[in-house]
Amino acid sequence: MTSSNSTGSLRLAVIPGDGIGQEVTAEALKVLDVASPAAVKFEQTRYDLGAERYLATGEVLPDSVLGEIREHDAILLGAVGGKPNDPNLPPGLLERGLLLRLRFELDHYVNLRPSRIFPGVASPLAAPGDVDFVVVREGTEGPYTGNGGALRVGTPHEVATEVSVNTAFGVERVVRDAFARAQRRPRKKLTLVHKTNVLVHAGSVWWRITQAVAQEFPDVTVDYMHIDAAMIFMTTDPARFDVIVTDNLFGDIITDLAAAITGGIGLAASGNVNPDRTAPSMFEPVHGSAPDIAGQQKADPTAAILSVSLLLDHLGYADAAAAVERAVIDDLAAREPGTTRRTSEVGDAIAARVS
Amino acid sequence: MTSSNSTGSLRLAVIPGDGIGQEVTAEALKVLDVASPAAVKFEQTRYDLGAERYLATGEVLPDSVLGEIREHDAILLGAVGGKPNDPNLPPGLLERGLLLRLRFELDHYVNLRPSRIFPGVASPLAAPGDVDFVVVREGTEGPYTGNGGALRVGTPHEVATEVSVNTAFGVERVVRDAFARAQRRPRKKLTLVHKTNVLVHAGSVWWRITQAVAQEFPDVTVDYMHIDAAMIFMTTDPARFDVIVTDNLFGDIITDLAAAITGGIGLAASGNVNPDRTAPSMFEPVHGSAPDIAGQQKADPTAAILSVSLLLDHLGYADAAAAVERAVIDDLAAREPGTTRRTSEVGDAIAARVS
Ligand SMILES: CC(C)[C@H](C(=O)O)[C@@H](O)C(=O)O
Ligand SMILES: CC(C)[C@H](C(=O)O)[C@@H](O)C(=O)O
């Protein structure tokens, strides 16, 4: 594990995954290649994890592979998830066994999802304003822990539970990370999103810890919003947000909405970050594997390419990260409405703009 | 309990509640008065439940009052919730002790929330299309049961849990109700919204029961969408939805988004329906008590008035219900952008249009 480098060799685990994951990852790597500082070499290890491997071997993420991945400096992931209703693929198995397992095992407690409306990009909102916020989604607890179970399955007396687990340890570290990010941004504003009026136990620990950590960041303005109210502000005044911190499930929901209002999930990048650097962080587009358009060169690789920018930034290459982002912004501004380009054409165009 | 009447006397429990709840309820009652069939008399009992009563007496919903309310034919509720950060008002206490307690005790398992873009109403979406759907939100289980708890509260070792409880009994009855509603609508389409790839136990019972009940409604088209994907479609193609069925928390979230994209929570009505009529159903606007604008005649009473339309429909007065809705539609179409009216002026205008 290397935390920040100016020269040298870095080990990158590449997991293209399923569906369009393959295509968008190819373009992301193309851009990584031209954007990396001259003195830095990414040694790539490719892992064929995903639906195909599972269907062929029954393996989702063998412990030995996880152990290997752990030895890398970062992970680039495309998308995970097989064809819907494939009878040989239990629903959610890959998402949980591969994607979520990596997030949990590698302690990706900061799921970082920036949202900006880039110049030239159309929003479905009539008047979105100047949108530039980042969601810090907790990544290792909440309703995603797999706790819960079912009794008398398939009978009229079935009872199924899902348990959201929230620890002071887990909440405090992600809240502190979110405050630190807010402090580094011009507006220095943090919004906690939860549902404290109904989910009182979880809500209480999130609320109290946010208040407590706020003391350490007196220059950051804090407010609170219920998740339902956040839906309204996200569509009527998204420009008000700066840093949002929230739990795993609310973060899942709000970041897809954020992606939608800022031009679609074709543009939404994310980092599954382990800020303590005890394991490699993982970068991936927010979108899924979109099996319906897979292999047709129809997918927009921009989100995967922006994830490369987050990856470079995380590894300490701020200039290279900024160059990728600038190249994307320039490409977006030059896109002609009504024309479509192949996945590889978009990758080529952005790679060509990286300077 | 009376289920459907053409003449006679009906008992209506009125709970204006807190903040703007008082003002919007006054207008709703004004419209109910002119809209009710001549031969029907609503005997109103007013209940001063809410923040003031709690602060004065410590009472939220005494059992004796609940017993009285139970003897009514329907309930009209304004909004519940005190001033934020009132040190004498534990957060969420009124919402849970009054609003949710009524929903649970009176078995309001169908939380009905229609969403339409009425003519003349501006949506924050640039091109929303022809939006007309209804969300059937489960109202008596899921993450709203209050199950869960906390250990070592206030210490670095705190663990807080929230348990979502989902029963075959509870899921099946609301899913069946949603299918029946879909069957009565021209498009006959039902969309299950959940997060089956992560919340596997709860997701599985929702999924299986939806598939099973679908057999009884062969003319209804069924599809499924993850809650995060639903965020995207709700902003990019909301016209695709007809009937959405979902759990209590997802329903809370999606209906505020639905309200936002169809012109705001000033227009969103809801019914907490007990379809078995073993207890009175309750009708209320989706919006909250908005303490910041309370008592200033600034609130839009339209959502409360549309809730009266749902109430009349539930009680069997389809014509009166339609007349209220028509009056609202006419008023909305006649609203002049940029002008504001007092709460009572909106109520007067709509009441005057009821024919
Ligand atoms: C695929 C799924 C498990 C995942 C999640 O729910 O976290 C995805 O929606 C995301 O947001 O990365
Ligand atoms: C006030 C709150 C408890 C309530 C809920 O979460 O159900 C409200 O948001 C609603 O949607 O009616």
Verbal overview:
The structure is a homodimer of 355-residue chains. The first copy, chain A, has 355 residues and is α/β, with parallel strands linked by helices. Chain A contains eleven helices and twelve strands. In chain A, helix 10 crosses helix 11. The longest helix of chain A has 17 residues, at 168-184. In chain A, 54% of the residues are buried. Chains A and B meet through helix 4, strand 6, strand 7, helix 5 and helix 6 of A and helix 4, strand 6, strand 7, helix 5 and helix 6 of B. The structure holds 3-isopropylmalic acid (IPM) (2 copies).
Relative strand content of chain A: 15-25%
Oligomer: homodimer
Helix/sheet category of chain A = alpha/beta
* Bound molecule kinds, no repeats: 3-isopropylmalic acid
Q: Greatest chain-chain interface?
A: A-B, 70 and 70 residues
Query: Mean pLDDT of chain A, rounded to whole units?
Result: 96
Whole-Å distance between the termini of chain A? Answer: 28 Å
Count of alpha/pi helices of chain A: 11
How many E-type strands of chain A?
12
Anisotropy-based shape of chain A:
globular
Main beta-sheet annotation of chain A: 10 strands, mixed
Written as H for each helix and E for each strand, in order along the chain, the element string of chain A is EHEHHEHEEEEHEHEHEHEEHHH
Task: Evaluate the radius of gyration of chain A.
Answer: 20 Å
Helix content of chain A: 25-40%
Unreliable segments of 5+ consecutive residues of chain A: none
Spatial arrangement of strands, main beta sheet of chain A: 2-1-3-12-11-4-5-10-8-9
Protein name (chains A, B): 3-isopropylmalate dehydrogenase
EC number (chains A, B): 1.1.1.85
Main location (chains A, B): cytoplasm
Keywords (chains A, B): Amino-acid biosynthesis, Branched-chain amino acid biosynthesis, Cytoplasm, Leucine biosynthesis, Magnesium, Manganese, Metal-binding, NAD, Oxidoreductase
